[in-house]
Write a structure and sequence with these properties.
The complex is a heterodimer of chains A (78) and B (202). Chain A is mostly helical. Chain A has a domain at 1-46. Helices cover 51% and strands 9% of the residues of chain A. Chain A contains four helices and one strand. Chain A has helices at residues 2-9, 16-31, 39-49, 62-66, and one strand at residues 54-60. Chain A is elongated, with a radius of gyration of 18 Å. By secondary structure, chain B is an alpha/beta fold. A six-stranded mixed beta sheet of chain B has the order 1-4-3-2-5-6. Residues 1-25 of chain B have low confidence and may be disordered. The interface between A and B is large, with 32 and 45 residues.
Chain lengths: 78, 202
């Protein structure tokens, strides 16, 4: 992170991957995302911790989910 | 009116099944781009104990307060491009007396199939919203998604459902935008487009 900030301040070009790294770092600090935690688990934890929020969710095993998720056009990155 | 809509919806659904729908089983190579995409998607949606999160619906306290104040109109639509996992985001909105739109509830969906909408309308919506306010719903506006309409119409006729006796209508914005697209191919005049707009909005 420090190297990235130094690169930006020194005028080096920001690449797409470095922007992604910066974005992930900010999101991690903002939402307290734990290492190895999936985006779905983060969303569920945030909703659980939100005061006054009501939620309902539907889950399935990996095999069941495999045929139920709509796969949109992909470009290699989900 | 509701029965007519239901029969039309059923007829359209049956014709779609007869003509186009074919069940095919494809084995996806896990080393291919598609296989890697599926694996990455399942990893992103994994929650505790190896379970996969298919759908998540929620409403906040402020949203429920507004819904209790103005419970009569529900607008329901699905949007895309809101998240990295490419899941459809369903949004429920209401209208206040100043004709302003406010959000009531949101849901990430696994797909736009009928069982998903049935889960949302029968299970999720009564859980996350106030049932007393939900019973005051008099008008539900949607686009012409056949799966959503098929999931909604039985609830409108079910006495035990909180959406009993609510009217279902197509959203005016969708009607106007579709009409302008349809008539653009035959170069409709400005007056005709304006007449259609008035017809739809009255």
């Amino acid at each position: 992170m420090a190297k990235l900030v130094a690169d930006i301040l020194s005028g080096n070009q920001i690449t797409t991957s470095s922007m992604q790294y910066l974005r992930r770092g900010i999101l991690k600090n903002k939402h307290g995302r734990e290492d190895g935690e999936s985006p779905a688990a983060t969303a569920l934890r945030m909703i659980r911790n939100k005061q006054g929020a009501r939620f309902s969710y539907m889950s399935a095993t990996k095999d069941e989910a495999n045929g139920r998720l709509t796969l949109f056009k992909f470009n290699g990155k989900p | 009116m509701t029965q007519t809509s239901a029969s039309i919806a059923n007829a359209v659904a049956e014709s779609m099944i007869d003509d186009d729908f074919k069940v095919t089983e494809e084995v996806v190579d896990l080393e291919s781009d598609e296989g890697q995409y599926i694996n990455a998607l399942l990893k992103a949606l994994e929650i505790e104990d190896g379970e996969i999160l298919l759908g998540l619906a929620w409403s906040l306290e402020e949203q429920r307060r507004l819904h209790c104040a103005y419970p009569y109109i529900l607008g329901i639509d699905v949007t895309f491009g809101t998240n990295a996992e490419k899941r459809p985001l369903l949004r429920v909105t209401g209208r206040n007396t100043r004709n302003n739109i406010f959000p009531i509830a949101e849901a990430f969906l696994p797909s736009q199939q009928r069982y998903v909408f049935s889960w949302f309308l029968e299970t999720a919506l009564p859980t996350i919203l106030d049932n007393g306010a939900l019973r005051k719903t008099s008008l539900i506006l949607t686009d012409e998604d056949i799966h959503f309409i098929e999931a909604l119409l039985p609830l409108i006729e079910d006495k035990d459902s909180p959406l009993y006796r609510a009217l279902h209508r197509l959203c005016k914005w969708h009607k106007v935008s579709k009409a302008s697209v349809t008539f653009s191919s035959i170069q409709a005049s400005r007056e005709l487009t304006e007449c259609l707009r008035r017809l739809c909005f009255r």
